[in-house]
Amino acid sequence: MTPSSLPHLLIDAAARHPARRFLSFEGNAYSYASFAEHVGAAAAALRDWGLCPGDRVALYLGNTPSYLVAYLAALWCGAAVVPANTRYREAELQHLLHDAEVRLVVTDGEGDALVATVRTATPSIDAVVTLTGAPDEDRRIWAGLAPSEGDPRPPAVAAGNDTLALIAYTSGTTGKSKGAMLTHGNLLANARAVGRAWRWAAEDHLLLTLPLFHIHGLGVGFHGTLAHGAALTLHRRFDATAVLEALENGPATLFFGVPTMYGRLLNEAGERARRGAGRRFARVRLLVSGSAPLAADTLERVEHVFGQRILERYGMTETVMLTGNPYDGPRKAGTVGLPFDGVELRLVAVTATAGPDGGAVDTSGAAAEVQVRGPSVTSGYWKDADATAASFTPDGWFRTGDLGVLDADGYLTLSGRARELIISGGFNVYPREVEEAVASLPGVREVAVVGLPDPDLGERVAAAIVVAPEGPAVDAEGVVAHCQLQLAGFKAPRTIAFVEELPRNAMGKLLRQAVRDRLLEAP
């Protein structure tokens, strides 16, 4: 029988290959059977505590096996998981927990103080669980959550194909995050499609350094490993020295990253070359890049230095993976390839008058909005009917907000973002959110935030600021410090320019491209 939920994938693999290695982490290894036992024990504790199907469980903790145990255990009980970026500060985390009406928060020693602070303003939270990072030690913590001894056997999986699995928050143009709803069916369909495209097999071993709170790490890396009965080695974070060592000498056959990571691996390889160290990977057969545009120069340099041509792909939180360069066939620099199995894609002229079909399909070669539909596309946004309606055409196509063109072979090239998204180091940053933070600093009269090209991050956040003559003095260091108190560090401006006025049109609308051009011209 085909597994109908993410926990069923684990149960099925543990039954068929109990002794097969599933997860390695900092010298500890877990077979499929032992990991399934940890998940089952946590699920039983959650059931005895009273977690019900449809409840929301937030995960605010780092990359450890404990994250994956908590994730699958909550799903086992039929709850929906709300991943929280560990870089979030108080206002960001509070919005997520309050909006999703989270009942249980799972965190670790690094996050428990902030969770305790925001809990007082989130009445829906009934409990907070602080884990250690080690499933063996966490068994006692999970058992302590239960109000009674309960039944030691794990409950039957209360999730199915149509059960809501994830509420994954993604920033909107208003600056407030909104939760994309993804079912087990959405996530399973995508994991299988990606696996077919990339020839994922049980013999594969993924080196996973992407954050688990991100759809790239969780929805592609972890789900793909489960779906194919494969193995993974988990790192707490990306460290170029450790990753290069692991790729050169470890068991990994797969590595997924963002362009910033590949740039840092190239830098590390350069240092090693100067010390006479090797640079070739031992067993790796596939490098994948996504979450931000990959420079053609980076692709070529990686192929030259490591002997591997990166496979670039395209996806987003609301849809998981959509397109990718082929495993067998040309991997064209600058493109994000062809649609995965089950994904339909069309380009619609942004200026076209929408008709009954949602818009005229653009065939002129000019950039147009990428619209998609398929089994992995979200049904909408949590408690946000307006945002849901705005994101779909009348005939059911999802508006990605990205602009692109198709070449003669059907390869998609992304050429811009209709929604002004900045992607810095693989993380999404929306200008409005940063502008609100900067504008709250005394002495700032106006601000405009844009993304500028950056060789390391892909794009860096830049702010053009108009100060109030009558207000207190404002300097760049103060702006950065102020933003870092309110926002995740990657959202704080890295380039700051003080200007006399912001460019606007006759109607007073900000000319964001003119701001960007001015900052690019600045010395």
Describe the model:
The protein is of the alpha/beta class and 523 residues long. Among the domains are: 6-18 and 31-184, Rossmann fold, CATH 3.40.50.12780; 341-418, Luciferase, Domain 3 (Luciferase, domain 3, Roll); 422-521, ANL, C-terminal domain (GMP Synthetase, Chain A, domain 3), CATH 3.30.300.30. 33% of the residues lie in helices and 25% in strands. The chain contains 15 helices and 24 strands. It has helices spanning 6-16, 32-49, 65-76, 90-99, 112-119, 135-145, 184-198, 215-227, 240-249, 259-274, 296-306, 385-391, 431-439, 476-486, 512-521, and strands at residues 21-25, 28-31, 56-60, 80-83, 104-108, 127-131, 164-171, 177-183, 205-208, 231-234, 254-257, 286-289, 311-316, 320-324, 338-339, 344-348, 368-373, 398-406, 412-417, 422-424, 427-429, 444-454, 458-467, 495-498. The protein has a 9-stranded mixed β-sheet, sandwiched between helices. It starts with 5 loop residues before the first helix and ends with a helix. 48% of the residues are buried.
